[in-house]
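Check the record.
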Amino acid sequence: MPNHVPTEELPVLEALINVRNRLQILKRDRSINPADVIAIYEEASMNFKLVIKQLEILHTSREQSLSPPVENNRVNDVLDDVFQLLSLFFMAIGKNRESPAVYVQLSTIKAYISSRNIVTNNEIFIQQCLRNLDESGAYTLDELVPYQERLKEIAKIIEADENNDSVPEYQLKLLKQKLLSCEKLLNQLFESGSNISKVLAPTQKRLVEIKRELGAIGAKAEFQIDEIRMLQDELRKIDGARVDGKFLSLDGSIPPGQAQVIGLLEECYEDVHELIASKKIVSNELKPTYDRLIGLKSSLEKLTITHRWTIRETDLWIYQKQLSEIDGTRTDGNFYDEKGNSLKGQTVLLYLLHKCYHIVYRILSSSEPVAEALVPIRNQLQTVRRFLNEVKKWGGPFTARELYLYQMKLTSIDNLRVDGKFLDENGGVPEGQGIVMALLNECYDILFELKSDIVEET
């Protein structure tokens, strides 16, 4: 029973569902009050403490039980929903540097790195990014470095909250487990990638690029077979460099990393054959999933352009849930029909799924610790800075009239401050003062530099 709930956990489940419902209602409110978020967070933490106790008891009893363990527990799923939403809310109010905000990011990285495993609802974002890379095998060591750096930043955030006793121990335990899981998977990827010799590294890098190009071609509404044939010819050229099935060094020795590179080569061949054999792209059974992923990818790509101006972190929740639902229909990394037959179109769907996860991660990782009340001001200052840098790039001399509009805009923003602070509509001091003030000062500095080239109008 995938949604089995032990009787002793039912009261906790009801309490968590109530918290989740309140968060979903708050998500629809376009003016989030940080006090509301903190209050719900504290209530959720109390329920979370009860859940941890129950899960520890259950874990012990399941270890002693001869019956198969319950893989998906409804309480776990709802608990995960609650803390993902809370994590997004903390980011929305500018508290990116606090432990609750890193939960959803840890969930995203792991899934992108690994993907041949069945994805559960409890592993969503840094987790999903890592899982996807592991599944496809299409990555280079350089591409792992940003994830490594982000995990180090998250570890520092968790450590700081632990030293300050600002987060309950049971919550830190959960975050540490997620962090450890991500680090373990990342280390496995580094170890696997480091086994590839320098001789084979260029070949592996090109195969990674070809695999991604094939996925991108297959995701098009229409594509030409010639596009596939060109890549197929390149694969044959790479394959032709092997001697007795092995890639050799210049001295005739067999460099390490054969299994990874040859495996990647074979996967590229499989992708080519699948795309050529099925110009329809995907089977009829997978068409609804394909259409859904195309829609999600299109929406997310638009957000990468507009999210700084229109989207809140909590708006990503609906995309995360839909991706989890689609991911959850896979078995051993593939989509099957009711009879257990593998369906045509795996390459395209996996590419689209991985692409969507990566876009979500990119949006989350670019989020700055600025509360929503300050986002419009930050956006205006970023625009002014961009225009000032363009003016600076073209060079002077300038007239006072040409720079007056920028001076007026900066002055109008500066006048919004009260006692040196930007306030929200309730008179509170929202998070992100330092970032906004740094932007304002940077704009003033550029403007002052431009004024040094002012000439008198004739």
